[in-house]
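Handout, section 4.2: multi-component inputs.
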Amino acid sequence: MAESVTLSPVHSRSIGDLAVIYAGDYLNKLSGERIERECRRQLEAGCRALVINFRETELVNSIGVSILLGVIDAVETTGARLIFSDVNQQTVQLFEMLGLTRHVALAKDEQEALATLAEFAPIPKAVGH
Amino acid sequence: MPTKQPNKNGGPILGRIAPDEFVGRRDALARVVGLASNGTPERGLLLLGAPSVGVSELLRQAYDELFREQGETIPIYFALTRNDQTAVNAARHFLQTFLLQLVAFRRQDALLTDASLSIPDLLELAAPVDYEWVEHLVEMTERARADEDARSFIRLCLSAPQRATASGARPFILLDGLELAEQLNGVDVPLGTEITRAMMHSGGPYVLAGLRRHLLDVIHTARNGNDSAASIRLDRLTDEDSRTMVEHLARRNGVTLNDQTRDLIVQQTSGNPFYLTSIIRAAREKNIALTSFRNCQQLYVDELLGGRISRHFASILEEVAPLSAVRRSLIRVLYESAENEQGRAPIETWRKRLNLEAGQLQTIIRKLHVYELASLNANFIEAGSGSLVWSDYLRARYRLEVEATPRALVVADMLAETLKRAPHTMARHYRREAALGLRELLERFNCQRMPASLFHYDRFSRTHKGMEADELVAALDAETDLVRLPQIVHAASCAAFHPPIQQVCDDERCAVAHGFDAGQYSDANEIVWLVAEIESKLEAGRGVTEIWCDRLMQVARFCGFNRVRLWLVAPEGFSIDASELLNEREVYGSSRQQLELLTARINEASAAMARQEVAPDEFEMVIPMGDDTELIAAHTVEQIARRISFQPDAINQIKTALIEACINATEHSLSPDRKIYQRFRVESDRLVVTVSSRGIIPPGLNNQNGVNNNGSEAGESNKGRRGWGLKLIRSLMDEVEFEHVDDGTRLRMTKYLKKQL
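Output:
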């Protein structure tokens, strides 16, 4: 599977026209904006589906959530798809509380997220395979 | 008759009564005596007294205590008197008193304080340590006197404390009767100002005492407005202290009295020590047993017309208006002004009726004001002092001098009147004792949240009536409909705002309280509560309730109050009809039981607040704003929460709530110090986290108080995507409340170990 790691402070990887973006341990204004920037960058680069992986995320604040909403808007505008994966229970509660879960799908882990996305648009095989 | 026997073993020295008979002023006495201590930061103290409330005796008691202590501080008590007649005499008297009491103290001989010794005599008796400066001072004063240099003489005499201090002594001047200083002028030196400056420059502790309305002016002049001395205000004695005082006085003077007459005397004189003493002494001198109202009132009328009380007021009136013709006119104007409905008249009316030049009128009014026989408010003079004794005296003088009524008739009428009045005076006292204390209760309103049923009799009656006490408390605890009380900043009797209300109710049964909703000082939050206690043996009916609603609204209109909250209290509550009316008019209505429950809950809230302030299991933390410092706070609260065994999900909720609170503080406060102050209080069943910051209050925050600002959820407009912090906090914690602080905000969040059902 071909993947590229960006030089952005946000860790991400691309798999064809799909990208996985890894959130940090604390999702606040600054880290949220970095994620948002990376998402927009991926979308502009032609990415059709995004997974934001929260496996490292211990705490999320309301500003971080509001930025995620901006990401959801941006993804919807481009007709791409978005899934949040590896969200811990407390963050799920927070997302539910703020109505975020009505607008984005959650996956247990990254694998499940990728599988879900594959159902709708098969992931292209990596070049060279 | 027992008299004072100067000694250093506890008996009075300058005091007129034994220390154990000195009632009601323990705190003030301790404060005065405490000034003698070297470690006290205060050096000067102003003792501001209403007329005849016992300021002099307080100073004398302080003198005695300090004398008996024989510590480093040498007490010197001096009282200005009219007998000195001139400033020069007063200054010489001061020096003689100073030296006499210095010698007495050095020799530990209390009897010397009463000795009649000249200044040369005292120089001979001066201790070696004092001799040099005393001799030098005496020589200089003699020289100034020989040169007829009054100003120098006065200043030299008054410099005694400063010179004593400079030589290593520590005199403590207790200076009394400062209001008399201006009558003693005779040279171009204002004596009051000179005395005040001399005390302030003495280098030692001092107390300046006098009539409260005069003393502050003198001090202000002496210091050019640079006031730094602390002050104590002495008001009337409480009823209980007054009763004790009368009992002591009667015992000491061998006068018989009973509980009824004791209470009548106290009520009639408002517990004024001078009047009480005058009456008991008169009883002793005339050998009258105060065992009946008749005897009491006979003695009282005698005192008004020819006793000490009469002489006391006569001397004040002579001082205020030395010319008899003017005095007579003054009595007429005073009496007639006091009798009119508002109890006040424009200055211009007084000027015309007294036919005086503006300057003369000003002097008279000022003196009346100082003696609190009238009050000057803007261009109006309010006659009367609220003292029944003064009113009675004034009426007697008016009838004798203005109406020229025969004295015998005045005496007979006054006696009949006071006898007829006695039961009413006592009834009023009993009513006052039984009153619910509305004003005091209102004064304690400070943004507490109280069950709404306590303000709605119909609801309370429907849901809580007949419950056992424990059950009732639990039901009130469980109520979710809460009324947030305003923060009251001023509460007074309704009559103080609208005197005619006195015709329909006692002062203490109707109150007006100014405050602010949520403790926020803004026009929108300003509110006035008007509260009345209705007399009704049964549930108050619609008629009387309507009358009181109208009355209170009339007061509100008369006073120009904008936002008001009316609250009626009837001992047994309100009938169904009356309750409907209250609801229609959005007027609160409570029974005595509800009021008692409310009082108890407010007491409990205050006690809880006091406990919080001294809570031992409390952590405090200050973090700078920004740079993700809220994470430090979150990790700290995690550690604390773990100590009391919160479950992991609850810990995460607390952490998130705290992070949101920190973000709110950072984003909204424009904090000048950029700091967030946090307190974590651990209780057996909960963790209370308080987050505060200085700066501005976010708009609408206090009206929401814990409810989110916009109530929006994700998916709504972009504008709605911020401001979720409070909503989150409220969802994550069990109790969330903004507490009132003068600057900035303070958010209190509580999480229970097991959430309350």
